[in-house]
Every structure is written in C-alpha cells, then in structure tokens.
C-alpha cells in the first residue's frame, strides 16, 4: 500500500527560513497527487522531505503506514525523478535502466526480466542498445522514469520533470506520465508551478503558498470552488476576474455594487443569503471566471445579473474569443493574487488597471462596442477582502 501521510510537518532551515508550516496531508494508494504553487512556496522542500533528503524540524512522515521520519533515503521505498534526467551518457539505455536496481543484489536474470518489462511498458524496448545522446528528449525522459520504475517503489516523487522540455513535447510527456502512473498503479507525488500541468495531470491537487497548504481538491473542484483568493487567482488561465465591490441591502434584497453597476446577489452568486447579509454595506471582492461572463443576447441572463461594458479588445482563440474590457473598480486592497501569472499580453498598460476578460463563443463584440454581459447563474464568487477566504455559509 503506497500511501503517503504527512502529519503536522514543519521544516525550518538553519538560516531560519520556514519552508513548510505544520503541514498535514494524506495521499491515497495509487493516487497521482500534484503539489502546485509559486516559486519558493516550499514544494521541493516537501518532496525532498518525503524522499528523506531533507530532515524535518517537527512532525512525522509515513509511507505505507510506516513512520519513516528517521529513516535514510535508501530505506524508504521511494524513487525520485528530477528536472534533468541525468542519464549516464556512456551507458546504454539498458544499463541506464538496470542502474536503478544496481544496489539490490538481484540475480542477473531477474534484473534482465525487470529491465525488459519496464522498457516494454515505456515503449523504449527497441532502444535498449542506444546511448542517451541518440534519443529524443521524450525518450530520455522515459528512460529516466524507467530507471525509477524498475525499482518497483511504493511511491514515485517527481520534481518539475517537464520544465526543461519544449511545449509540444511537454503535452505528450504529460499524457505519458499519467498513463504510466495508472498502468503501474504506483502512488505519485508530482511537484509543479504550472497550473495547467497540475490541473490536467492530478487526481487531486494541493495548492501551496508560503509553506502552507491552501486547498486540496480534485482539479474541477479547485477550479469551480476555490477556497480563497490565492487559489482563485492562481488556478485558471486567463485568471479569474477580480474587483473590489460593496454589498448593499435594499427592499430586503442583497446587491453587489462595483464599477458603477448593481448585481442582484441571488441572481448571480450561490453565496448563502445569511452569510452575505453579514457583509451588508461592507467591502467584498467579487470574482467571475471569463467563461462565466457571456454576451447576454446569446443566452437570456436574468435581470440583475448583467454587466454593461465597453469592449476594448478582441482576441480570437480558436473557435472562441476573449473580450477585454476595463472595470472601474480597484483590483484588490492589498496583494494581487494574480501576480504569479505571466502577463497575457505585454502591450497591456503597466499600471494596475483592472482589465477583465469575458469568453465569447459568438462572433459579436469588437473594440468600441458597448455590450451587455450576462453572469452565469451562481458563478459569481465573493471573498472577504481581509482574510481572502470565500464567503460561504
Ligand atoms: P521552486 O519552484 O522555485 O523550486 P519551491 O516551491 O520548490 O520553489 P523550495 O525550494 O522548497 O521552494 O524553497 C522554499 C523556501 O525555503 C524558499 O524560501 C527557499 O529560499 C528556502 N530554502 C530552500 N532551500 C534552502 C536551504 N538549503 N537553506 C535555506 N533556505 C532554503
């Protein structure tokens, strides 16, 4: 049973940097768990701690139910694949894979059987005699994985294994890693800062920031129901539209006002009424994903769930288009949770103008057009600007 459990793990480096803060996590047997977060959030430290390459300051690590906190790396049943494949250039593919079980004192026939089984699984069995330099990047990656798989570990640890490969190959290898992981049935802990990679690969994704796990959920759930502003802003591309707003109460109804417009809460959010009432006449942060804003003419959005906007820019992406428009409302009081993202377009004004994006599947909506956008029912999220947490019941 390749379960992995972290029980209130804290890691403080000698220089005082706290890389992981009392983090608890349980990964199921056979699960592909992705740890996602910006640079420096502690992902690699966590992975190295599970591998035993880094000792922990507090807490326990369990693999397959066994407390391995004090065990040396070689006594933990894990295999790690790093960013660079680090194949031995002078060795054949066969010997590179066999190297993974070198220290096991297995009989030659047993080693041979294992290498051939793994090579077949990874579809590199026709390359066994070649040297690494005669392989493509993708083939090298598979051989590196083979060297880890041949050991038949309980747990597979991967630290940004695709960060050095080009975009097209990355897509292919990502699919391959998922296939191999499921075929072998091994538990995998995969670290990345790339949210697309995390969302397409993970059975579950854990979002990390400053050594703290912010949320753990299946990708779709993480996307639709982010627990806080950080997760909301970090997951999704283009990112969720965010703006400061005020909650108003009138005639027994609740409204969210921003950019000079008033949205009827019940028509656009699924935030429970009672929870929202506590915010009456206070500030909140409103968040709407681009695909949850659509041209109202196409789908009849109810009264009170429409935004009047002036389109500034239209960006065609395959069958759909992104409609850009300015929102007259500050992005956020404090830190911008969208920071980790690449700018969508370098020509954007440098100052922090709040530009929103709607995703449109119709041909309508060009620069200069004044249009009405409907907010998909229940898809407007509201956050507490002080804590960053989503407002819920
Ligand atoms: P990246 O994606 O850039 O690799 P990460 O999320 O993997 O980042 P870590 O490498 O785990 O982050 O680092 C977490 C924090 O611990 C950072 O602030 C980093 O500077 C610090 N850190 C990492 N290794 C050490 C070390 N050996 N000594 C002191 N501080 C360290």
Structure write-up:
Helices cover 22% and strands 31% of the residues. The chain starts with a strand and ends in a 10-residue tail after the last strand. The strands form 4 sheets. A 6-stranded mixed sheet has the order 6-7-8-3-9-10, sandwiched between helices. Strands 13-12-11-14-20 form a 5-stranded antiparallel sheet. Strands 15-19-16-17-18 form a 5-stranded antiparallel sheet, with no helix packed on it. With 393 residues, it is an alpha+beta fold. It has helices spanning 43-51, 93-98, 108-121, 137-149, 167-184, 195-201, 219-224, 229-234, 265-268, 273-277, and strands at residues 4-12, 18-27, 32-36, 58-63, 66-67, 78-81, 155-159, 187-192, 204-209, 212-217, 241-250, 253-258, 261-264, 283-288, 293-295, 306-317, 320-326, 355-360, 370-375, 381-383. Bound molecules: adenosine-5'-triphosphate (ATP). Adenosine-5'-triphosphate (ATP) binds next to helix 1.
Short recap of the structure:
The chain is an alpha+beta fold and 393 residues long. It has helices at residues 43-51, 93-98, 108-121, 137-149, 167-184, 195-201, 219-224, 229-234, 265-268, 273-277; strands spanning 4-12, 18-27, 32-36, 58-63, 66-67, 78-81, 155-159, 187-192, 204-209, 212-217, 241-250, 253-258, 261-264, 283-288, 293-295, 306-317, 320-326, 355-360, 370-375, 381-383. It has a 6-stranded mixed beta sheet with strand order 6-7-8-3-9-10, with helices on both faces. A 5-stranded antiparallel beta sheet has the order 13-12-11-14-20. The protein has a 5-stranded antiparallel beta sheet with strand order 15-19-16-17-18, with no helix packed on it.
């Amino acid at each position: 049973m390749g379960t992995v459990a972290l029980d209130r793990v804290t890691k403080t480096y000698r220089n005082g940097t706290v890389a992981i803060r009392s983090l608890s996590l349980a990964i199921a047997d056979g699960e592909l768990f992705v740890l996602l977060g910006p640079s420096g959030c502690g992902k690699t430290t966590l992975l190295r701690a599970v591998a035993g390459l880094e000792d922990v300051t507090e807490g326990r690590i369990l693999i397959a139910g066994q407390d391995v906190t004090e065990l040396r790396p070689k006594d933990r049943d894990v295999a790690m694949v790093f960013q660079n494949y680090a194949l031995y250039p002078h060795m054949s593919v066969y010997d590179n894979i066999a190297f993974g079980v070198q220290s096991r004192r297995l009989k030659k026939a047993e080693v041979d059987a294992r290498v051939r089984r793994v090579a077949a699984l990874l579809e590199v069995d026709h390359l066994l005699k070649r040297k690494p330099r005669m392989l493509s990047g993708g083939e090298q990656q598979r051989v590196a994985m083979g060297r880890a798989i041949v050991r038949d570990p309980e747990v597979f640890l991967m630290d940004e294994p695709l960060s050095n490969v080009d975009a097209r190959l990355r897509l292919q290898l990502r699919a391959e890693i998922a296939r191999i992981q499921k075929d072998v049935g091994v538990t995998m802990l995969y670290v990345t800062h790339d949210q697309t990679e995390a969302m397409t690969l993970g059975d579950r994704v854990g979002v990390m920031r400053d050594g703290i796990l912010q949320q753990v959920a299946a990708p779709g759930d993480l996307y639709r129901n982010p627990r806080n502003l950080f997760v909301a802003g970090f997951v999704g591309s283009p990112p969720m539209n965010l703006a400061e707003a005020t909650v108003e109460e009138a005639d027994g109804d609740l409204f969210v006002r921003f950019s000079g417009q008033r949205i009827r809460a019940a028509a656009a959010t699924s935030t429970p009424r009672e929870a929202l009432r506590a915010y009456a006449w206070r500030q909140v942060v409103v968040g709407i994903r681009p695909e949850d804003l659509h041209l109202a003419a196409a789908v009849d959005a109810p009264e009170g769930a429409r935004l009047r906007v002036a389109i500034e820019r239209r960006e065609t992406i395959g069958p759909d288009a992104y409609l850009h428009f300015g929102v007259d409302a500050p992005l956020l009081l404090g830190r911008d949770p969208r920071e980790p993202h690449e700018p969508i377009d370098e020509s954007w004004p440098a100052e922090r103008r709040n530009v929103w994006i709607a995703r449109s599947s119709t041909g309508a909506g060009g620069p200069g057009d004044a249009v009405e956008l409907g907010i998909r029912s229940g898809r407007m999220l509201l956050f507490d600007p002080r804590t960053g947490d989503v407002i819920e019941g």
